Amino acid sequence: MVCTEEIEKILKEELSDERYLHTLGVRDCAVELAKRYNLDVKKAELAGLLHDNAKCKTNDELREIIETKLKDVNKNELKNYKTLHAPVGAYFAKTRFKIDDEEILSSIRWHTLGRVNMSLFEKIIFLADKIEKNTRDLNYRNEIIKILDENEGERGLNLALLRCFTETIKSLAQRQLYMCETTVDVYNWLLEITK
Questions:
Q1: What is the pTM of this model?
Q2: pLDDT digits (tens, 9 = 90+) for 151-173
Q3: Which residues, 6 or more positions from 37, have their beta carbon under 8 angstroms from its beta carbon?
Q4: What are the residues whose beta carbons fall under 8 Å from the beta carbon of 2, sequence distance 6 or more?
Q5: Please, what are the domains in the chain?
């Protein structure tokens, strides 16, 4: 496995300044959430650092990698270019950064769309991406943290995720962007488990 310091150095060179700042924010927020939910802090740090490692690639490069190297990407996922970096990021984490922990790889793979029956670890990485302090809206972050504070355990996490998916669906609809069926499935799943 490539050491954390080396990963940071590579990402600083390859990502835009804003994307790198976001990455550090996700790392910090992932650690914060891992502590809150008694999860492995080191794994959360790595997943947070590597979640956007493929963001430096063009959409054409991402599609090429998906078509030639990845067989588990649903064709519906290819309709929104904003999520292409997630499966490629998991692939790079494994092949380039030598991460073999399936929990880390899965959390990178699903940090954009989420999935039904997400693990606790996948949930915190997904949420960290949405509410980190460096580049995300602080009012929104505070709203999500309040949900976590007011609801115990995984229920709070599920309610926070439901809030995120509600915003995502509204945003996609307002901008008339393609909405992957997975997004709708996760939203419905979260509705069901938070009743």
A1: 0.96
A2: 999 999 999 999 999 999 999 99
A3: 120, 124, 153, 154, 157
A4: 10, 96, 97, 98
A5: 4-193 (1.10.3210.10)
